[in-house]
Amino acid sequence: MEKYIFSLEMKVRDYECDLQGIVNNANYQHYIEHTRHEFLRSEGISFAALHEQGTDAVVARLQMAFKTPLRSGDSFVSRLALRKEGIKYVFVQDIFRLPDNKPVIRSTVETVCLVNGRLAESVELNERFGKYF
User: Fold this and answer.
1) Whole-model pTM above 0.90?
2) Which of 1, 18, 36, 97 is most buried when burial is the number of CB atoms within 10 A of its CB?
């Protein structure tokens, strides 16, 4: 069981579904990316400001396991856990359907930082996220 540090509730919109009436697989990546960006914002970190300062956090690897499909109108919660492995920030992001908390996806997103175009540690992110490691 992950120790989640951030949660975000959302609702499926009609246009996110495919002809089968379920959420198109690509939209789950949008959900987890939005969750990471909202997590950064909650920590006082602006993704745009990081870029302006020469630091770009980029996805290096993404794994996603689909458990139960979401359908139009479904409510869900996207939960996030964080750990550090070397220079990587590893986000474990799980989505659960509401209100029954049935697992929808389990994903792991490995991110790295490019500082002034070079793979490097981000001092700011290490300081902000240190309390979670």
Assistant:
1) yes
2) 36
Calculate the average pLDDT of the chain: 96
Q: What is the CA radius of gyration of the chain?
A: 16
Peptide bond into 99 cis (omega under 30): yes
Catalytic residues: 18
Determine phi and psi for 130, rounding to 5 degrees: -50, -35
Closest CA to 131 of 87, 82, 90, 91: 82
If you search the block for the tokens 């009609």, which residue do you land on? 14
Pairing of strands 6-11, 88-98: unpaired
Residue carrying structure tokens 């770009």: 56
Q: Cβ contacts of residue 125 below 8 Å, gap of 6+?
A: 45, 50, 55, 57, 89, 113
* Predicted local confidence at residue 2, as pLDDT: 76
Q: Check: CB of residue 43 under 8 Å from CB of residue 57.
A: no
pLDDT at 47 over 90: no
